[in-house]
Amino acid sequence: MPEYLAPGVYVEEIDTGSKPIEGVSTSTAGVVGVTERGPVDVPILITSFGEFRRWFGEKLEIQAFSSGGRAHCHLPGAVEGYFNNGGKRVFVTRVLDTAGAVRADFHLHDRGDVASVETVLLRSAGEQTGTAASPPGLYVLDPGVLASGDNVRVGDGSDAEYHEIDSVPGNANDVALNFSLVRSHAATTPVDHLSPGAAIDVLALDAAADPGDAEVLLGGTIASLALGQIVAIGPDPALAEHRFVIDITPVPANPNQARVELDSPLARAHELATPAELLDSTVAPTASQQLDLDANGGDALIFLDALGGAFNIVTDLVVVDPGDPVRREARRIGELHTLRLTLGAYADYPKAFVHAVVLNDDGSPVKALTSAAVEGTRVISVDSRDGLAPGDVVRLGTGAEAEFLTVEQIPNPALGPPDPGNLVLEQPLRGSHETGVEVQRQTPPVPDLTRPASTLALTAEDGAQNLVVTDATGFAQGDRLAVTTNTGDIFYHEVDTVVVPNAQAVELTQPLARNHRAAAAVVQRQPLLTVEALDAGSWGNRLLVSVEDEETGLVSRAELDTIVTPTSVRLSSASGVEAGSVLELLDPDSGGAVGDPLKVAELDRATGTLTLATALSGAQQAAEAAAVLAGAHLSVRSRELRLTVRLLRQPDPAVPSRNRAIVDSEMFRHLSMDPRHSRYVQTVVGDIQGELRRSDRRPEGESWHVRVRDVAQDMAEPARTTALESVRLGPETLHDIVSGGRRRAARHPLARGEDSINTLADAHYVGDDDPEPENRTGLQSLRNEETISLVACPGQTSTFVQGAVIGHCEALRYRFAVLDGERPPNDSLADVQAQRQQFDTKYAALYHPWLLVAV
User: Fold this and answer.
1) Is 727 exposed, middle or buried (0-12, 13-18, 19+ CB in 10 A)?
2) Which helix (H) or strand (E) holds 819?
3) Which sign does the torsion angle of CA 644, 753, 649, 695 carry?
4) How many Cα atoms sit within 13 Å of 703 on the Cβ side?
5) Residue with more model confidence, 770 or 830
6) What are the residues whose beta carbons fall under 8 Å from the beta carbon of 534, sequence distance 6 or more?
7) Distances 61 to 53, 56, 77, 781, 844 between C-alpha atoms, Å
């Protein structure tokens, strides 16, 4: 270029003649097409196929990325081939129908509070159900104040999902049964209400019956027996099991005995001489309805299309499918109750039989523990084993802490009293007991005939303190229960409170994504954080997000040094403390939390003084005073959360076991929910609505996979500031129990990601030009990179796209277009020639990438 060293008029000659096409370097290419993920309409420089995978993901399955006979999956393979054949640099522009494509997301919710409703599913809920349009809705136990617009979590662990309630139609038409059904019955099956009146006759068992027996030996006036009768076997009508007689075989040696085949096996054991009442099943039903929902074998709760006024009489019967002598079943009507226990379940109780028992101190000398017994142990030491024998039931402790346990073994008994030593129990202790706690033998447990027998309507898990039973009419605080599981194990409990709950229907705005078992948790929660895939597309559905509390906070070795005022304190060290920190005070001996967590509003680092958003409670101040008197201080730790994001490998239909393999993960430690904190989750991970970077047009953030949004950020003031600066420990932390009983943070899948391949058109590949480089899209975005010499849209063979690529190269002059030939079978010589004849240019070459190998 000439230099002009002084002002003046100069003449410069410019050659306007045509120049021949100059050779171009092939080391830098530009490709446009569909990828699994990555920035859209932004050329990204890639120097290896590994780097391509980090930015744009894996190769694409032709089945998933084809529409209308057109494949959109060839760019990743072309990039791999480019590098395998010596290519050094390639700018990749991802194209996408941004109007149709969707980012996968998941909403993390809060931990609830004392006002949050907590209930359970009364029946299993299936995938793609739960709404008015996809019935049935959810049936929950006594949901309290749940209402339209509320958000609830259904399930637990990784299977948990969060939904908004659309409506709460009202109470369900549920009927509790004293014993579970044996057979399954479809919706619309008839159900009769039966009042059989007084017994026709009363026979008795001439042989004990065990659970599972479908044949019993009856004695008495055998002439009263008839096929189709209902026989009620039990010591009392409230404890009886009802079965239809389907076969009668008289015993030749005894005219007063007959073997009777029942329509289904018995659920519990019955002793010799147990009464067996013969009921008149030919009486007309008082009312008839239909099953509104399927009833399954094992269900002790059925749902009808209507109740009327008859199906709540607990002394009467229901007959399911009365017109079918093979499938009909009779059960006594119960009434749903929740029994709150003084101590939780000793094991899982699946569909157990529950009845009241008389269980009292037998008056023998009281014994005592000679050493402390800790929760979970099955061996206790007592000062005397005199008078005890295996099978005895003993009371350990008094009051609400009392446990009723069965002696399994007495190791190494002495020849005479007092015989101190160990007792091996059948059940592990539910609580811990100090040395000296009394141990008292009980009278042999017998059924309490003033209380009805019933079945667990829902499985009670180990440690559960609520038993949902099908009838507890007349039960009261202090009653003793025997819970007999299907394995024959018997556990004893004491009743704390009795509640008569409602069964209620709940309809969601969106159907469930997974199946949920009966007794699964349904709890009220509020959205806290939105987690969204960084890029649109179905790839985001393979992302899993986990939330955990940090075990060791940024503040972990500090003590409460001085209480200046209830809202102003000093610590032994302010390291790790900043505005927005959440601090928890801990007892120096037990390590347990003292009072509620506190929020730091300000920190004066010169003096080390912390200003708290809320004052220390009286209990916290008293605990610190007591610690000081003992020569110590309350310990202080900060509360932060940990967010982990995992990416699963692409699904492999041939080897589905590989689908859960993790190909990438990232972890963000010590995150805060306060925007004043340097580790604010939205700042560290990245804000969904954050300002876009010029380099890739994505919001700023550290994550390669997701961005987040704090729901409180979108509130109106002053609610926004109040929420952001309040004590928020973060989303609820759910866990899974994996092999070996190990707890693992739940892994929540993102969902609803969509590539919108069906709406992808030629116009998305060609894109739009714009004077502003950042607004250029598709092929036109390659104008922003001057070093590109080769241009291609791999796999795209339409005249419109290929003509646009040629026009792009002709306009920029120093670029050369590589055009793909048609796929087989449209790849004959005539097809290739016809495709070539469409274009008259020296800026392009036809590349035929398709190779068919005969095998």
Assistant:
1) middle
2) strand 816-820
3) negative
4) 30
5) 770
6) 37, 103, 686, 698, 703, 704, 705, 706, 707
7) 15, 14, 11, 26, 29
65-109 residue pLDDT tens: 999 889 999 999 999 999 998 999 999 999 999 999 999 999 999
Do β-strands 367-368 and 438-441 pair in parallel, antiparallel, or remain unpaired? antiparallel
Task: Report the distance separating Cα 348 and Cα 463, nearest Å.
Answer: 8
- If phi > 0 it is left, if psi is from -120 to 50 it is alpha, else beta; for residue 234 that is left
CB-based burial, 108-127: b 16+ in 10 Å, e otherwise: bbbeeeeebbebbbbbbbee
Q: Which residue is associated with the tokens 């609400």?
A: 400
Provide CB contacts within 8 A for 722, sequence distance 6+.
Answer: none
What are 479-491's pLDDT values in tens digits? 999 999 888 899 9
Collapsing DSSP to helix, strand or coil, 633 comes out as coil
3-state DSSP assignment of residue 254: strand
654 residue type, one letter: A
Count CB neighbours of 586 within 10 A: 17
User: Any bridge partners for residue 710, and if so which?
Assistant: 529
Half-sphere exposure of 32 (CA within 13 A, CB side): 33
Q: Percent of the chain having pLDDT more than 90?
A: 82
Token couple for 235: 């010591």
Distance of CA 825 to the CA centre of its chain: 49
Predicted structure pTM score? 0.86
Distance separating alpha carbons of residues 139 and 174, to the nearest angstrom: 10
**DSSP assignments along 777-810, one per residue:** -GGGGGGG-TT--EEE-TT---HHHHHHHHHHHH
Residues 828 and 831: their CA atoms lie apart, in Å, by 5
Rounded CA separation 713/717 (Å): 10
d(CA 344, CA 567): 40
Q: Which two tokens stand for residue 16?
A: 């306007």
**Residue 583 has which token pair?**
């601090």
Both tokens of 353, joined, read 């039989």
The answer to whether residues 554 and 733 touch, using CB atoms and an 8 Å cutoff, is no
Of 468, 519, 530, 466, give the one whose Cα is nearest residue 496. Answer: 466
pLDDT confidence band for 851 (50 / 70 / 90): low
pLDDT digits (tens, 9 = 90+) for 190-216: 999 999 888 999 999 999 999 999 999
Beta strands in 734-780 (DSSP E): 735-737, 743-745, 748-749
C-alpha 394, offset from chain centre: 40
Handedness of CA 364, 365, 366, 371 (dihedral sign): negative
CA-angle at 30, arms to 27 and 35, nearest 5°: 125
